[in-house]
Amino acid sequence: MLLLTCPWCGPRDETEYHYGGEAHVPYPEDPSALSDDEWAAYLFYRDNPKGRFAERWSHSAGCRRWFNVVRDTATYEVHAVYIGAAPAAQPGGAK
Fold first, then answer.
1. Separation between Cα atoms, residue 18 and residue 30, nearest integer Å
2. CA distance 70 to 82
3. Percent of the chain with pLDDT over 90
4. Residues 18, 60: contact at Cβ < 8 Å?
5. Angle subtended at Cα 56 by Cα 2 and Cα 19, rounded to the nearest 5 degrees
6. Cα 14 to the chain's mean position, in Å?
7. Backbone angles phi, psi at 27, to 5 degrees
8. Can you give the pTM of this predicted structure?
C-alpha cells in the first residue's frame, strides 16, 4: 500500500487519493490551431518511464486539492511531494 503525504492534511493511505497522470504537461498555446492528431497526442499520450516520475494527485477523500509527487514507478518510493513547479533538485521536471 502506498502512503502519500498531502501537503495540507498530512500522511494518508493511497485509497484517499485520485491519480491525475503526468505532472507539468503544458497546455497548448493555441489549441484551436492543433490538428485532431496533435490534440489527441496532447490529451492522451504521456510518458511512462521506469524510475522517477512527476505525477499529479488529488486528495479526493480529504481536502480535494491537487499536488505533485515525484515517485519511482519501479519501487513506488516517494521522493518528493510539492505544490506548483518542480523542485530544483529534480532536473527535467522531476523525471
1. 29
2. 9
3. 83
4. yes
5. 55
6. 14
7. -70, 140
8. 0.82
Sequential DSSP letters for 32-78: GGS-HHHHHHHHH-----SSEEEEEEE-TTTT--EEEEEEETTT--E
Share of the chain above pLDDT 70, in %: 92
Note the pLDDT tens digit of each residue in 26-35: 999 999 999 9
Give residue 39's identity as a one-letter amino acid code: W
For residue 9, give the C-alpha cell.
Answer: 492534511
Contacts 24+ apart (CB under 8 A), 47-50: 47/22, 47/95, 48/73, 49/73, 49/95, 50/74
